Structures are given as C-alpha cells and as structure tokens.
Amino acid sequence: MDNILDIREENMTRRSGMFDFRWQFLSNTGALVLNMYAVQHASDTLSPPLRDQCIAVRYNLTLPWVTSDPGR
What are all long-range contacts of 24-32, with beta carbons under 8 Å and residues at least 24 apart? Predict the structure, then answer.
C-alpha cells in the first residue's frame, strides 16, 4: 500500500464558486499529486434549474528524492 501524506485545503470560497484543492505526496515513489476541483453554481434565476457545473483537473508532478550526499 502506498504511503500517502495528504494535505487538504478545501472549500475555499470565492465569489465565482467553490474550490477544492488536494495535495498528495506518495513517499514510496516521490510523486506529488495536485487535485483541483472547481464548482460553479448555476444562478437561481435560470429556468429550469441547471445542475452545478464541476471541473476536475489533476496534475501529477514527479519530484526526485532529496537526500544528503556525503560524497559531494
């Protein structure tokens, strides 16, 4: 099973909608994953009511391990 350090900051409120950011660090592979979800709410004046629009973007960033090298 992957060792995951999960730092979550969610429901950042902005005038244009709600945003959810999720960072994951996979300690066994050194991959840093950013998940960003943006939800924009439809106006109440629209008829018929529209469902919330959801946009999901996922970034996979692979970072090398940083280790102390006594040979340098």
Answer: 26/2, 27/2, 27/3, 28/2, 28/3, 29/2, 29/62, 30/62, 30/63, 30/64, 30/65, 31/60, 31/61, 31/62, 31/63, 32/60, 32/61, 32/62, 32/63
| Residue 54 within any structural domain of the chain | yes
Q: Is the overall model pTM greater than 0.90, yes or no? A: no
Task: Specify if 68 maps to a domain.
Answer: no
Domains held by the chain: number: 1
Domain that holds residue 57: 4-42+49-62
pLDDT single digits (tens) 8-62: 444 443 444 455 566 666 667 766 666 665 555 555 444 444 444 444 444 454 5
